[in-house]
Amino acid sequence: MKTSEIKKLVEAFYNGETTIEEEKLLLSCFQGEDVAEELLKERDLFLDLYKSEPIDVPLHLEAKLDTLIDELARKETVKVELKPASKKKYILRWAGSIAAGIAILITAGIYFNKQEKATTTPIAQTIDKTIDKADEQKIKEAQEALVLLSSKFNKGMDQLALVSTNLDKTNEILNKTFNRKKDKES
Amino acid sequence: MDAETFKKVFLPYHQKLYRIAYRIVQDTANAEDIVQETFIKLWNKKDELEQIENTEGFAIIIVRNTCLDYLRKAKNDYHTSYDTEIPESSSLSKQFEIQDDAAYVKDLINKLPDQQRQVIMMKHWDGYTDEEIENITGISPGNIRVILSRARKTIREQYSKIEQR
User: What tens digit of pLDDT does each residue of A114-126 get?
Assistant: First the structure.
């Protein structure tokens, strides 16, 4: 390669206009023995510019990332396993509410049915007046008891949900601590 | 994408990702943290990854953005450093201490503004193409040429000062 051509390429190089091929060409020219004296300084700088400083990738990094991926996958599995449990919880709560509701409806149905019978048979009404009153009282008490039972049941379910949330949080904290310890160890 | 497939696809990129992170943040511990954070981000996006053809390019973009986030957090003025000039090389006496020309050139490269330093190291030392540098840094090919030209000229100028001594 002629000295004038090399000079042109050198100028293009400093203007950031050379292609990779042209830079490789310059490199091979400068690495050769026939370099014109006027280009010796350019050669030295050019070769120094390409003397790389290798970056050593930490040897443990791959194993660390491998463990990290396993940990991420494990956390995801735990989350997936927890989901059906919380669904069950909601189903139970709904079933409880519905059962309590049905019980109230049945009690109310029996009560109104008795009242209707009482109005259609006035003689029986007078005879059994005292019994009816007692029944009415019992029905009322039963109704109240069922409402109380329903509210207690819902309260209990709320407490269970709270306990479950706290358990999740505790698990999360434990996992974090465990991971940190694992990272430190590795 | 399950854990095993994820490992098969992305673990082989870890060396390249680490080198990119190191080029940008210039610190081994932070480069390692950034690579780990990149893998967490990739895992969180694993459902989208099956539709991505260039997984390596995607991973490079994530590592680059993570590096930029880190630099922003570290209040390192990454972007404004673009136009700043090389600091007038320490003291002349210090320059004379550097006997080896290659070490002196390395010193000059290390003193370049962040963006110039990164681009010149990626181009000369890591052998990346302009397209790869564009993917890694997000700098357009036109700007890469301008940055390279500035960096090379600055080094040539500083180098010739020492040669004249």
Answer: 766 665 555 555 5
Compute how many other C-beta atoms are within 10 angstroms of the C-beta atom of residue A14.
Answer: 19
C-alpha distances in Å from residue A11, one per residue of A96, A128, A184, B141, B145: 85, 120, 52, 19, 13
- Packing angle, helices A61-120 and B14-25, rounded to 10: 100
- Give the integer Cα–Cα distance in Å for B35 and B38: 5
Question: A72 to chain B: which residues are within 8 Å by CB?
Answer: 3, 40, 43
Q: With CB atoms and an 8 Å threshold, state whether A73 touches B2.
A: yes
Q: What are B155-165's pLDDT values in tens digits?
A: 999 888 776 65
Asked if A119 contacts A125 with a C-beta cutoff of 8 angstroms, the reply is: yes
Q: Tell me if chain A has a CB within 8 Å of the CB of B7.
A: yes
Is 0.80 topped by the overall pTM? no
Say what the ipTM of the complex is.
Answer: 0.72
